[in-house]
From TrEMBL:
Organism: Cuscuta europaea (European dodder)
Region (Disordered): 318-374
Domain DUF4042 stretches: 386-566
Protein name: DUF4042 domain-containing protein
One Pfam family hit: DUF4042
Amino acid sequence: MDSSDPLSPSPSVRSWRTAFLTLRDETLTSPPPSNVVHLLQNLILSQSNDLIKVSADLAPHEVTSDLLFLMDLAQSISISDACNIVDTYMQLSHLVYTVSNFVHLKISHSCSPLVLDFLSSTVEILFNKTKTDKAFISDAAIVTSTKQCLEIAKRLFNVSERATMLLENKQLLDFTLNVVVHFQPQLHDSLYSSDKILSRNASVWEVQIVAFSMIGDVYSRVGSCLPVDVWESTIGVVRSSLDLLASKGTLVEDNVMAMFYTSLLNCLHFVLEDPKGPLSGHVDGFVAALRMFLHYGISIKPNSAYPVVDHNISGYKKQSFSEPMKPYRPPHLRNKNFKKHNQMDDESHSSSERHNFLTGYQSSSDSENSDSDGLGKDSCYVRYAKTRLAAILCIQDLCRADPKSFTTQWINLLPSNDVLQPRRYAATLMSCLLFDPYMKARIASASTIRAMLDAPSCVFLQVAEFKESPRSVAFTTLSSSLGHILMQLHTGILYLIKNETHSGLLISLFKIQMLLASCTPYLRMPPELLPTIISSIQSRVEEGFSFRSDQNILLAAAINCLSVALSSSAFSTPVKDMLFAEVTKGFVSRKSGVLSILFQYSEPETSPSISFEALQALKNVTHSHPSVMVLCWEKVSSLTYQYLSASVDTQTRTWRDNTPGEKAIAAAIKVLDQCLRAASGFKGTEDLFSDKSLENPFMSDYVKTKTISSAPAYEMQGYVTTKDRAESLSGSEQWLELIDRHMPFILEHASVMVRAASVTCFAGITSSVWFYMPKAKQDFIISSLISFAVTDDAPLVRSAACRAIGVIACFPQIFESAEIFEKLIYAAEHNSHDTLVPVRITASWAIANICDTLCHYVDVNGFDQHSSVCRAAGMRCHQSASLPVQSNHVALCLRYKGGGACFTISDCF
């Protein structure tokens, strides 16, 4: 063929093909390994530089086929004792590595075992050669070859470009873990060498960086599919690496070492995301090592003078937070006029040094896309920050993976004193949340604390008890330690709520405070703690939020946090006194207290999300402190009237709609319901199982009396005391206001939520209030309930009506009319055949109550067959009892409430 022909290969291409064709021909006869080594050296490796240059001119599939042939041929010489076997493998791996930089090699799944076997053999031969060589780390060629083998595997098995098989992933992990295990003894010697030697051996750490990055990539992609034994072996290798670092006790602040730490911790993060086995044996070791990274790269000068903060909650309450805070500057504007800003900062540095330190350097970026996060252009500090972030995420993974075992680490990860003081050698999650200059690390710390408080195992916090103890005490009980930890958490979180300017972190802080309020046993804590929490959140709400885009979200979160704190204050006398003091002032100022704030944000003009949270908070106040909210009846009634009257002109939706506006109206009616119950003398709940305080196994020191005064109410056969009479008359007035003022809007309301919430109010009426209610109003209530139970299209409304019927049917006055009594039984019996189980349950509960009350009536007054009430009721009960039970739920209600009453009455006929 003419060399001038454009289709003819170039001389360099012909040299590639000639070399590989010759090698194929020479090895057809299966020569001994020593001859194969000689052929490889003469035909391929001696001209490897020229072959590398020409590889880009060849077709990728041709280059891939020839390299696979080399790898297969190398396997036949792996057992050779040739003196240059190590050099041959090093040169082959270098050839494959360099060619892969120029040519995109495509390895099929069928060829992947060959590639991994070649790489594993290469690394094994290198390690076997150096087993007796004490200067292993100083042999840069071997370390470089090992790194190149890892790079080859990483490049050929790129997770983003190929769908790997499970077997392939297992082989890749085995190869990578083998590299890590072989390097660990050498890393131990390197860690305990001088910093000069350590920096010279940067390539050793780079091998580990690539290895752990590859392990993390595999687990991030197919971690859920890997078998248990592979996961356990990975955990063991990572644990041994972390133990090695922990054994030295200090971390090296170096660019390369920071990259190694980050790759190791990111690998652990991916491995822990989907745990496949128990971690109880590893939690202590992991946490001990991870704590070392919490302040990695943060220099805290020991001689810096920071003012001492009073950590008593009373001292915290009086603390001034008037220091000016730096305004937020976007990342792209921070370097402008840098010198001018520095001069201004230097002038005010002495006055605001502590404030800026505690608020996490307010120059931190709000942008999730800014890696520097306000730390400037120094890449080393950025790597330190990412290392801290990775360690915090690993702690969070451990908490989620094994929350029960993780409870033993609370004392190690959370402070028990001086939470607002920066301490370099006492790193905790709270110190990261307070002092870390990297915003993402602070947010991760907040998420980790939330995970710890939100875990099911945090019920052990109920044993916490705060006791002032001298620092000289050598032993502290677990309950006392937990009490001090909870106290420090409250102090730190409230400080940040007051001063934080990052909207995302502030939302997390409110969520942490909500969890704290839910799991803290305030009866065992200082009495002033809960009022301080409420006052602090109230002050933050009054101060407002400067973030226009997140203002409603932050305000709703703050009010929700306030709601949870108020719901935890049922047994707090200081909170009750605080609310009473505000009410007795008559709400002179719209911002004079907690209740004023809640009523202000509960108005219909407020955003639905905010008004709903405020109404929920008012409901919690009514439930926790009913005697306080009774004094606010006029405001509650007026507020509910505003919602109902404003919705008259907008009722164009069907009953299936569920808009935020309807949600707020229903919430307002529920507040009205709670006030009616409080005014009527309703004590306790209709269902004891709805009382969360009964779930607390550590409430033995407080005895709570539960009185179900709504039904059944046999005490009305006797006389009524003067106190009960006055209370009943007061409750009757408010019920009359409900009927006259609000019911006209409710009866024809289009919203199912509103109608159901309104009908539920009647389930809270007491027998004493009913006794003093005019006959016309009694008839109105009964007729409305029967209409809702029989004719309403919404199951939720029918269920609420049956619930109210089950209460009112127990009042003695019902027996005065056989017609009304029969209609009540019919309404309940009609819904007992409903297709929905919740409706049948409520209806069956009402029937059981009716039967139980009728039984009691017969026991007291005797059974008169000529009585219209007895005959009508008996026939209805007999029919209901003879019907087949449609579900286990119905049978349970009949047994629980009826006590066989249906069958007792039917025996009379």
